[in-house]
Structure formats: structure tokens, C-alpha cells
Amino acid sequence: MNPHSGKQVDVLIVGAGFGGIGQAYALRNHGLSIKVIDSLHDIGGTWLTNTYPGATSDTESFVYRFSWDKEDLQTYPWSRRYLKQPEILEYLRQFVEKHDLRKYVQFNTEMLSAAWDEGSGLWEVSVSNGETYWARYFIPAMGQLSKVNLPSIPGIANFHGLITHSSHWDKDIDLTNKRVGVIGCGASGVQIITAIAPQVASLTAFIRHPQFTVRSNDKPVNHQHRD
């Protein structure tokens, strides 16, 4: 293996969501050369792909942000105790612009392989555009919530209605007065059920294990609370 045959950086980060962007900011400030690759077309990670009805952070808004930026905590407004997907995505984008991080990110680029090379003491990472990166530090920050995981359900191929997955929600679907079934009652399932219930004709939730869901007590945030 020849490190001179590819691009060399101190740090290669895979993923441009909260984890990847946070690492890029911190390590750049330590004087390291960095590169971030992401298979998507923009910043955001799971908050770019998960656009289903009711998509919301289940962590309070004053916590779901980068803790080291105290100025941002006071100056960047948030409207409610729990932020919806568009607000979270906009927050992350403005953070990237504020700290000039976009120039480090290469979009539409998927990692194909990563291997440690004992001889050079570097990571060899091959990506989908044919390039090879050699890095002292390799940080996978892909997360686990942006790709569709379709269960093997007997007979699903014979279903003639509309099917959409929370990770790749079809925005053109109109559920008004429709008969809807939601499979799963994790965070996404609960949020979808809550959001669409007022508009559908009937709603059935298919849940393997019954569970108790606590009310979020979401409400607008005033200036006193923010201060």
C-alpha cells in the first residue's frame, strides 16, 4: 500500500450530521487537517432524511445543540421545548456557516471500505468517486437512523396500497380521510401517529410489545425560559 497514491489528511470523518460536524469543528481547532465525506447532498444526516410528519427531537431544545457555543445558546432562538425537524436542520446549517465548516465537506460521496495499514500507520479509506484517502485518524459518524430497514413481512408484496417508510417519507402522499396503518411504535411511530391522527379516517397502530409513552409537555419557549 502506498500512501502517496491518494489524498492525505490528519482526520477523515464519515458523516455530516451532528456527530461529524461536531468532530470537524473540534479537531480543526486543534490544528489538524480534516476531511468530511457524506453520501447525502447536504449537511444534516438523519435530520436531512427524516422528514416524516411530526419528526421531532425527543431531547429538549436547550440541550439538543452544541454545548460549547454559549454565545449561540443565547443568540440563536428556538421556538419550543422540543424542536421539529426543519428547525433542527436549520440550526445545524447555520452552525456550519457560522464556523466556516462547509468547505471541509465532500457531499454525494460514499465510503466503500476502510482498512488500517500497519506499514504506514494510516487508515486507507476508499470512496465512491474513485478517490483514496490516507488518514491518521478515522472517525465513522454515520449514525444508524438514516437508512431504511424494511422488515420481512409475509404478503407485503401483494399489498396494493401506498407504502412509505419513516426514513424516506413520500411528501406527495395525502393521508386526508384515508385508512392508515402504522407498523412500529418507537419514537418515529409515536410521532407519526400523533401528527396524522387528526386528518385520517381511521388509524391502526401495529405494535409488537405494548409500551407506555409519556406526554412531552411541549410548549412555546418564552424569553425568560431561554435566559
From TrEMBL:
InterPro entries listed in its UniProt record: FAD-binding_Monooxygenases, FAD/NAD-bd_sf, Flavin_mOase-like
Molecular-function GO terms, alphabetical: flavin adenine dinucleotide binding; N,N-dimethylaniline monooxygenase activity; NADP binding
Gene3D superfamilies hit by this protein: FAD/NAD(P)-binding domain
Keywords, in A-Z order: FAD, Flavoprotein, NADP, Oxidoreductase
Pfam families: FMO-like (PF00743)
Coiled-coil region(s): none
Protein name: FAD/NAD(P)-binding domain-containing protein
